[in-house]
Write a structure and sequence with these properties.
The complex is a heterodimer.
Chain A: E1 10-12, H1 15-21, H2 32-37, H3 42-72, H4 86-105, H5 107-121, H6 130-149, H7 180-209, H8 222-253, E2 264-265, E3 268-269, H9 277-311, H10 318-331, H11 347-359, H12 361-375, H13 384-401, H14 403-406, H15 409-415, H16 420-449, H17 455-481, H18 501-531, E4 561-563
Helix pairs in contact in A: 3-4, 3-5, 3-6, 3-18, 4-5, 4-16, 5-7, 5-8, 6-7, 7-8, 8-9, 8-10, 9-12, 9-13, 9-16, 10-12, 13-16, 13-17, 16-17, 17-18
Chain B: H1 13-16, H2 42-75, E1 78-81, E2 86-89, H3 99-131, H4 146-170, H5 179-210, H6 215-245
Antiparallel strand pairs in B: 1-2
Helix pairs in contact in B: 2-5, 2-6, 3-4, 3-6, 4-5, 5-6
Classes of the chains: A mainly alpha, B mainly alpha.
Chain lengths: 593, 247
């Protein structure tokens, strides 16, 4: 790794530019509360989101560990929980999924890194609406607290899964946890939606209206494109989830029948009639599938960024990458029905959803081939951010390949309720996105904290995570194909599954080791904040705007200056240039002939 | 009614010069804001606020699109009658209270007043700029209190919706009586909550005026609230048509 300082041109703020620069109207805050708690600074808010997600991910991992222990030692009493009943196991499944999807995969890549770096990467002094930005974080935090509170109320947390399928979720008497715990679960998600919508509003307005001079849309880093499209997806999807949640709350508490047909629970008529559980599924998955891309698009943008930086080559097919992001975002709204093949939908409808789902493979393949084209022939630097970026591509491809299997209704009916599905979505949506978060952490840590993370620990962390992830989730595909059902809490005494129990044990041991490996990351993160080697302004010799400013960036991001952009974001190995990279703010380079 | 644009710039005559081609509110902060206050100029702030509003209205739209979708789906669903074990329709159309028509008139009128208030406060900002020019006599301003009148009408509308709910309940239609009544309460209630947001924004602008805060800021708040208010009026007309003609 070569050290260097950010080059590039910055000019003194002129009257013409004051319109952009002066948007950072609130001065540098004084005092701990204004500076670190109720901060209006997008960088602090980004860090707040990041640490919230960090807390959430360890809560989620702890829950998954309890599940794994129970699966292979079902009679062992667990800490805090004692003996695990089947419904308690479903509670763990529900809360693990919900916390991970909303408060980790949605929160860290977009709320954390997006908040911190989107304004800087487009040359803006802050988000368009700083107060709204602050409110979006605090709203999200309240949502998280309400979600955790569900553990501690009478009946405990809900057991209806992170998808909250009705009528299980819509009738209070369907099980322990479906009383107040389920209400808190719905309210938490509604609060989260409001926070996410406020965030999306800021991301879109900032991107459209606050780009520095010269930062055309086609000069934006692919990270910015990814955050921008993710915000649009959130804008369209979270409103639908909010509406679904309102209807669910009304069914549960006001006696309406949007989702609940005439059913009995424990031999008693519920008093509902005529509602449709499928209505919930349609509304939920209209949100739920774009949510997959909300989680993974930022990681795709980041992988594009890092593969270019660490291969010392321009990104292969910048425009194609942009159109692929847009294509994935658009098609993401057309495929929700593939989650519902089991619901008895018309085969013609299922066929349409199936075709559209496989159609998403086209822009996804464009991205994958362009990533390979980017590193092909490059002078690759295998620093920790690059390792995790490559790991992301690996997981994305591995998880993505099983997608077309599930996209076919006849196969999905066989595989849907088996371990094949958790294997698939954990690889492509869960851990791939987490690898994006790790890559972003190692890449931007020097800029955020002014110090380098320990590279040896980072490499150990990578190999633990990479091998561990495959050890956990690849065997799940085999379990699924062999017919092992998911969501069952106790399978050690089921005759036809006995031969598969050793594989379940292997997965649990792998989970132990992989989670232990995350402690390396935790130690490295906090140790490096205070004791890490001092970072120079541009340690990776990258070209985008965050590397032109001081480390860490000043309150207004560019220290009273505003950048002027002359070049694209991935100018590496330019013939005739004095070094192997050209900053976005360097004088405009001649196009190659 | 003026057109909505999020692309206002300093060269946009609708913003920079006003509809009458008069000088704009002072730039670099506008009237009432010190030039060194660190805020972007008026046109930039207005453009950004309008863009923000346009983006913010998208999820509101999606919310009501979802409700509409649920409305159409739920309307067509049969229900099992346990006594006869046959599928029956449980969608009993609700006769909407006539009061809703009066409320609609109130809201549409408030939207007109809101537009007049928007134009008025922008004019005030322009006059504030001109007043500071030596030799220019103070302008004779229209002092019709459009903004408070809008506020009052907005509150009357909300009160009228509450009265309509009471009339519905008096005629035996509660939230869970029939799916159609559930949707009446849902749609009117959700719309009322959103309109309440507009009322609070107007109250905020009024308090800002009493406190003597920047005219520019108030102008932007009123402008954005006006467009929001028009959207809410249009949305209400849509909801009423849905409940009346699609049930």
């Amino acid at each position: 790794m070569a050290g260097g300082t950010g080059g590039g041109e910055t000019i003194t703020m002129s009257t013409h530019e004051s319109a952009v620069q002066a948007a950072h109207a609130h001065g540098a805050p004084q005092g701990f509360i204004r500076k670190w708690v109720f901060s209006l600074d997008h960088k602090v808010i980004g860090l707040q989101y990041y640490f919230l997600a960090l807390v959430a991910v360890f809560v989620g991992m702890f829950l998954s560990l309890l599940m794994r222990i129970h699966l292979i030692w079902p009679t062992v009493a667990l800490p805090l929980l004692g003996d695990i009943k089947p419904e308690t196991y479903l509670t763990l499944v529900t809360m693990h999924g919900t916390i991970m999807v909303f408060f980790v995969l949605t929160t860290a890549p977009q709320g954390g890194f997006g908040n911190y770096f989107l304004p800087i990467q487009i040359g803006a002094p802050d988000m368009a609406f700083p107060v709204l930005n602050m409110l979006s974080f605090w709203t999200t935090l309240v949502g998280f607290i309400v979600m955790i509170a569900a553990f501690f109320v009478a009946g405990g947390a809900p057991l209806h899964g992170w998808t909250g399928y009705a009528p299980l979720s819509a009738v209070q008497s369907t099980g322990p946890g479906e009383g107040l715990g389920a209400d808190l679960w719905i309210i938490s998600i509604a609060i989260f939606c409001i926070g996410a919508l406020m965030g999306a509003l800021n991301f879109i307005t900032t991107t459209l209206d606050m780009r520095a001079k010269g930062m055309t849309m086609m000069r934006m880093p692919l990270t910015v494109w990814a955050w921008f499209v993710t915000a649009i997806l959130g804008l369209l999807a979270f409103g639908v989830l909010l509406s679904a949640g309102i209807l669910l709350l009304m069914d549960r508490n006001l006696g309406t029948s949007f989702y609940v047909p005439l059913i009995t629970v424990n031999g008693q008529l519920t008093g509902h009639k005529g509602g449709s559980p499928l209505l919930w599924q349609h509304l939920f998955w209209f949100f739920g599938h774009p949510e997959v891309y909300i989680a993974i698009l930022p990681a795709m943008g980041l992988a594009s960024q890092l593969l270019s930086v660490f291969s010392r080559k321009p990104i292969f097919g910048y425009k194609a990458m942009v159109y692929a992001i847009l294509g994935i975002g658009f098609l993401g709204f057309m495929v929700w029905g593939h989650h519902m093949f089991m619901s008895g939908m018309s085969p013609y409808t299922a066929f349409a959803f199936s075709i559209m789902t496989m159609g998403i493979g086209v822009p996804s393949a464009i991205k994958t081939f362009n990533w390979l084209g980017t590193i092909w022939g490059g002078r690759i630097r295998f620093d920790s951010p690059m390792l995790f970026a490559i790991g992301f591509v690996s997981l994305f491809v591995s998880g993505g390949i099983s997608g077309p299997f599930l996209a076919q209704p006849v196969l999905d009916i066989q595989l849907h309720d088996t371990y094949f599905v958790p294997g698939h979505f954990h690889l492509i949506m869960g851990v791939a996105s987490i690898f994006g978060i790790f890559a972003a952490t190692y890449y931007w840590f020097p800029k955020m904290f002014g110090r380098m993370m320990n590279e040896s620990l980072a490499r150990w962390h990578f190999w633990f995570s990479f091998i561990g992830t495959y050890a956990i989730f690849m065997p799940m595909h085999y379990l699924g194909m062999a017919g092992m059902p998911r969501r069952y809490s106790q399978m050690t005494e089921v005759g036809y599954l006995l031969d598969l129990i050793p594989l379940q044990k292997f997965i649990t041991y792998a989970a132990f080791i992989t989670i232990a490996g995350q402690l390396i990351f935790l130690v490295n993160l906090f140790w490096s904040m205070f004791k890490g080697k001092k970072a120079v302004d541009n340690p990776w010799e990258a070209t985008t705007l965050e590397w032109t400013t001081a480390t860490p960036p000043p309150h207004d991001n560019f220290g009273g200056h505003t950048p002027v952009v002359h070049n694209g974001p991935y100018e590496y190995g330019v013939p005739g240039a004095p070094r192997d990279y050209v900053m976005q703010t360097d004088p405009e380079i001649e196009p190659a002939h | 009614m003026a057109s909505f644009s999020t692309t206002a710039t300093v060269t946009d005559p609708r913003v920079a010069l006003g509809d009458d081609g008069i000088l704009p509110p002072a730039l670099a902060g506008g009237s009432g804001d010190r030039p060194d206050s660190g805020l972007p100029d008026y046109a930039t702030r207005l453009r950004r606020a309008r863009l923000g509003l346009l983006v913010a209205l998208t999820p509101v739209l999606m919310l009501f699109v979802s409700f509409t979708s649920a409305y159409v789906v739920r309307q067509g669903l049969p229900s099992l009658d346990p006594r006869t074990a046959t599928l029956v329709r449980d969608w009993i159309p609700v006769t909407l209270p006539k009061l809703l028509l009066i409320n609609t008139g109130v809201l549409v009128l408030s939207s007109v007043f809101m537009e007049l208030a928007r134009r008025q406060i922008r004019g005030e900002a322009v006059f504030a700029s001109a007043d500071s020019i030596p030799g220019v006599p103070p302008a004779s301003e229209s002092r019709i209190p459009w903004l408070p009148m809008t506020l009052v009408l907005g509150i009357i509308f909300l009160f009228g919706q509450w009265m309509a709910w009471r009339q519905l309940a008096a005629s035996g239609f509660y939230v869970a009586t029939t799916p159609s009544s559930s949707f009446v309460y849902l749609l009117t209630g959700t719309h009322a909550v959103h309109l309440l947001g507009g009322v609070l924004a107007l109250l905020g602008a009024g308090v800002a005026s009493l406190l003597g805060l920047s005219l520019t800021r108030r102008s932007i708040v009123v402008d954005v609230t006006a467009w929001y208010w028009h959207f809410m009026a249009g949305l209400w007309v849509y909801i009423l048509c849905l409940l009346e003609f699609a049930s």
